[in-house]
Design a protein that fits this description.
The structure holds 2 protein chains of 2 kinds. Chain A is about 75% helix and about 0% strand. Chain A has 2 domains: about 120 residues, no CATH class; about 210 residues, MetI-like fold. Chain A contains 13 helices and no strands. Chain B is about 30% helix and about 25% strand. In chain B, a hairpin with a 3-residue loop joins β8 and β9. By secondary structure, chain B is an alpha+beta fold. Classes of the chains: A mainly alpha, B alpha+beta.
Chain lengths: ~350, ~525
């Protein structure tokens, strides 16, 4: 099967997944007891006033009509208007989602940049102190609640040492870079705004490290186990017997092979990080979608919840599609994927 | 390995336990307020949330404003945009003469047309804040500086409703931003268009809002060149930033954090009596609570003093009747009930309700509700009443309140305008049964008669008299359990000067007259 056929088929699945997610989210959000019209009107409003708002929002129509109208708008790029903020949902997503994505990508990069070398070292020096240290680190990482860790690093690096800022994505006293991409870091570089760039980097360190901490351990363990498999293979022994240096065998031969299964872990980690970002964002006042979505759920803001669920699941499915496609590139033996 | 871990542990412990050093102090002409959540919308005709009003209130002016005297905020009003006003003998026609010289931030003068535009929009949109105003409110421009409001039914609190955030006067030029007939709602959600001392100049969603002085404001030039409202969702982080000097004011801190901060150098905790009331709804329609003796027994069994001391750490004032201290109409002769289990038991026995089993509905809306519910459960157990707690999702809880599906439930209430109407008419009028106000489903013709008369009576004295009569009846009927009015605590740096707390303006700061010392 050609690469294009696979791509076309997977994109078809992607659309199905997004429709499925939208249908399930719609059903769940309408099953929650409570009336968004009442929330807008306030507790003290008369029933007539609440009914008028319900009619204005179209909440008095049958559910299938509401869903149909939503999908009709969705395919035209209209995600509806937020009940809570009165702004188009798409506008709110553009305001909040890039910050979350920026944090997740930074955390992911951190977990790869630290996790891979640690995993390799752990496998190469198996059962030596470094291996024990990496394995203990992985266990600590997996079992540390991000929320707690966030508060501790905040207390240490902001409260006690004063090295890093306590929260937000940029110092509010600095004029932010113009919006080109929505990613503050990238925008600061494009705008050539050095003060903003320094501020953005400083603000990104603690939340990205907190969020990435768990995954450093996961990536390290995954790489370690894959590397141990590879290091036990005949080709490694042959290469060593042929006179290749240990580092060359490890880095040029064993590691690329060990990376293939690890790519799957990264795809899954992306989803995990998106989910984990909610708590980290709260601790570090990171202006991402976490707090926005929580507030929207509490306000029964269906269009906002729907919009975010669909966009996030789209991003998740897309990343996993890219992971699958990466297999083909990384391993030419794989010609057919699910 | 062990040594490595021990070293790491020691570094962390020493680091975390060492005293906080103030690492940043905000500039003298910048005020930074730390808030738990991003405002939802800044449209005065839509928002009913004090969290939004921090930004919207100083951006708009209203016909009248709350007075303050000797650094204390009062619930009485005086003219803001209005120079003076008259009201017809029947209370139906209100005419306001505007002060000349007030302008919106784009230089356009504030005139009678702008007042008409704002109120017509408010009434047409019929969202939360519109509820305080009658649907058939007619606003007429008499001349550029005179505006007339005509009501079809007298409504004595009308003047006080004009100091609400919802009564902010909006620049009619916003119609240029109207989209699909939305009355510019989407635009005003994220922008301000008023004549107040400040205007919103930037909003980085989820992160910060920046207010800067309105160059055309007619009042004295404010001290702050910028007021930044910073969104810091986590309470511990807000506390840290206040200690570190990155925040000048930190909102919504839990009691234990406030207590800890009160010992911190450079931090000043202001404690003010508020009009926010916590009370219990006793479902007057459901047996055995339909009998006044049973309700009286419950009131008698609950030790409010212990709840205030134990749960609020003393930061509250016990209530005897529905109108809280600080609101005109408050009757100091109605004193809080002293708990007496013996008497409670006797009352229950007399009503044939000894050993009653009751449900108590609550939600996680307020962290104090659960400990209060547990205290009430224990108090009532002493009187032989078994209470089962139902901790519900907030949406479900509200739905149950509206339908009257509970025996006892807990709630908070704060007035939208400074008039006892907010307590007496909402809580006791039989036509407001349910979520809209009368959550105990209380009904008594004599009380309906008194409070409805008080709502239209011409003078404050006459209204006070009518409300007092009604108060005595409803207290005797034990329609609700009035627990306490909670103190508001404002945590700020001690360099911040001139803050005036007004119980009607929680989370709203007089940023135009505040300043910072060196």
């Amino acid at each position: 099967m050609s690469f294009l056929t696979i791509l076309r088929r997977r994109l078809g699945f992607l659309i199905l997944v997004v429709i499925g997610v939208s249908l399930i989210t719609f059903a769940i959000s309408h099953m929650i007891p409570g009336d968004p019209a009442r929330l807008i009107a306030g507790d003290r409003a008369s029933d007539a006033a609440v009914a008028a708002i319900r009619q204005k929002l179209g909440l008095d129509r049958p559910l299938y009509v509401q869903y149909g109208l939503y999908i009709a708008g969705f395919v035209q790029g209209d995600l509806g208007t937020s009940i809570r903020t009165g702004r188009p949902v798409a506008e709110d997503i553009i305001a909040f989602f890039p910050a979350t994505l920026e944090l997740v990508i930074a955390a992911l990069m951190l977990s790869v940049l630290l996790g891979v070398p640690l995993g390799v070292a752990s496998a190469v020096w198996r059962d030596r102190p470094i291996d024990h240290a990496v394995r203990s680190f992985a266990v600590i990482g997996i079992s540390t609640p991000a929320f707690w860790l966030g508060l501790i690093v905040l207390l240490l690096f902001y409260g006690r040492l004063g090295w890093l800022p306590s929260g937000g994505a940029i110092d509010p006293l600095i004029s932010p870079p113009a919006h080109y991409t929505g990613f503050d870091l990238v925008d600061a570089v494009i705008a050539g705004n050095a003060a903003a760039l320094v501020s953005v980097v400083k603000h990104l360190i603690l939340p990205a490290a907190t969020l990435g901490f768990v995954h450093v351990g996961i990536v390290a363990r995954q790489i370690r186990s894959a590397m141990l498999d590879q290091l036990g293979e005949d080709y490694v022994r042959t290469a060593r017997a042929g006179g290749l240096s240990r580092s060359r065998v490890v880095l040029r031969h064993a590691l690329p092979n060990a990376m293939i299964p690890s790519v799957t872990v990264l795809g899954l980690a992306f989803g995990d990080l998106l989910y984990g970002a909610v708590l980290t964002e709260t601790v570090f006042a990171w202006p991402g979608m976490g707090n926005y979505v929580v507030a929207s759920i509490q306000a029964l803001d269906f269009p906002a919840v729907m919009g975010f669920t669909v966009v996030v699941s789209f991003a998740y499915v897309l990343v996993n599609l890219l992971v699958d496609l990466a297999y083909i590139v990384l391993d030419p033996r794989i010609k057919e994927i699910g | 390995m062990k040594r490595m871990l021990m070293t790491l542990g020691a570094v962390l412990t020493i680091g975390v336990a060492a005293p906080v050093s103030a690492i940043g102090a905000t500039p003298k002409d910048v005020l930074v307020i730390g808030k738990a959540a991003d405002p939802q919308t800044l449209d005065p005709a839509v928002t009913i949330d004090n969290n939004d009003w921090t930004v919207s209130y100083p951006a708009y002016q209203r016909l009248v404003r709350y007075e303050s005297k000797d650094g204390k905020g009062l619930s009485s009003v005086t003219g803001e945009l209005a120079d003076h006003w008259t009201v017809s003998a029947d209370g139906l026609v209100w005419e306001f003469k505007l002060k000349p010289g007030n302008s919106f931030a784009d230089g356009i003068p504030v005139d009678a047309q702008a007042v008409k535009f704002s109120f017509d929009r408010l009434v047409k949109m019929k969202q939360g804040p519109g509820e305080a105003f009658p649907d058939d409110l007619a606003v007429t421009v008499v001349d550029p500086l005179t505006v007339r409001f005509t009501l079809t039914k007298a409504f004595a609190p009308f003047l006080y409703t004009l100091a609400n955030n919802g009564a902010g006067i909006i620049n009619p030029a916003v119609v240029a931003n109207e989209k699909n007939g939305d009355n510019a709602q989407a635009w005003l959600s994220g922008h301000t268009a008023g004549s107040g001392p400040y205007q919103l100049t930037a909003w980085q969603k989820g992160q910060s809002l920046t207010l800067e002085p309105n160059p055309d404001y007619s009042g004295p030039k404010p001290a702050f060149a910028k007021v930044i409202v910073k969104i810091v969702p986590e309470a511990s982080a807000r506390r840290l930033q206040l200690e570190g000097g990155d925040l000048d004011i930190a909102e919504d801190l839990p009691l234990d954090q406030v207590q800890a901060l009160s010992k911190t150098a450079g931090v000043d905790i202001g404690t003010y009596p508020s009009l926010r009331v916590t009370y219990l709804y006793l479902n007057n329609k459901k047996p055995p609570l339909d009998k006044p003796e049973v309700r009286r027994a419950i009131v008698k069994a609950i030790d409010t003093g212990a709840i205030i001391d134990g749960i609020l750490l003393g930061n509250g004032k016990a209530m005897g009747g529905p109108i809280p201290d600080g609101m005109w109409g408050y009757d100091p002769t109605i004193t809080p009930v002293t708990a007496d289990v013996k008497e409670a038991k006797a009352l229950l026995a007399k009503a044939g309700a000894s050993g009653a089993k009751l449900s108590f509905a609550l939600s996680d809306r307020d962290p104090n509700w659960q400990p209060i519910a547990l205290a009430v459960q224990a108090n009532l157990a002493d009187a032989g009443v078994t209470v089962s707690l139902e901790n519900l999702a907030n949406a479900t809880y509200r739905e149950r309140l509206g339908k009257g599906e509970f025996d006892i439930a807990i709630g908070n209430w704060s007035p939208d305008f400074s008039d006892p109407y907010m307590f007496m008419n909402y809580w006791f009028d039989s036509s407001k049964q349910g979520l809209s106000g009368n959550r105990s489903f209380y009904s008594k013709a004599a009380v309906d008669d008194l409070i409805r008369k008080a709502a239209v009576a011409a003078t404050q004295d006459e209204r006070t008299g009518l409300y007092n009569q009604a108060q005595h009846i409803v207290v005797d009927d034990a329609a609700y359990v009035y627990l306490f009015q909670k103190n508001t605590q404002v945590a700020k740096r001690d360099t911040v000067k001139g803050y005036v707390f007004n119980p009607m303006l929680e989370s709203i700061y007089n940023i135009d007259t505040m300043s910072k010392a060196d």
